Amino acid sequence: MVSPGIVVSVLLLVSTVTANKLDFLLKFLAETERDEASLRYLQERQEVTTEHTVYGPLCIAVSYKLFLNPLSWEEARQACEDDGGMLAIIRDQTVHQFIKDYITEAKLKSSIAQNGKGLWIGLNDKEEEGRYVWVDGEVLDSDDPDTYAPWADGEPNNNEKKDSNGQDCVQLWKSRDFAFDDAYCENVVDKGYICQYTECDPTCAKCA
Description:
Blueprint: E1 5-12, H1 21-31, H2 38-44, E2 47-48, E3 52-55, E4 62-71, H3 73-82, E5 86-87, H4 93-105, H5 109-113, E6 118-124, E7 133-134, E8 169-173, E9 179-183, E10 191-197
Parallel strand pairs: 1-3, 6-10
Antiparallel strand pairs: 1-4, 2-3, 4-10, 5-10, 6-7, 6-8, 8-9
């Protein structure tokens, strides 16, 4: 069962389209009357249950939920799987930017700052230092210039000050505009997390 917390559902197009993918997304939202006041729209769609508050969804194809209740990376990975998804995979600047824009518009930064100062995503180098692997098994190829890997300045650094095992799990770091950052996986600072779901939400008005 997913732990109590705030959940935000955002559905994004992750297939490769044109160079103006973000413009396409915003145009789509405008055409469906969802960009003028997205926050108001989300609040109107708010559902309150005994477990969590859900905002959304904004619909295109693939859904992401932002859970703000802090967990360790492994607990977050398990929570996503228990909820029918996986920790988020962000291989594309458009998806990354759209999530960041949504966090800003939904005014979630202060809540994230109070819950671990970041959001776990599905990337780690727990098995081999420096070899980052997504939860779907694909290796992040840092040597490939086409690989999307927006690390914060000076990261990853595998800091061992608070844990001799180093930092093996990746977050979107609030303090660095939600850039990638390696962080301690557990027993130091728990964080919120982002789950990814492969199926379009059935409440969506339109799915690509």
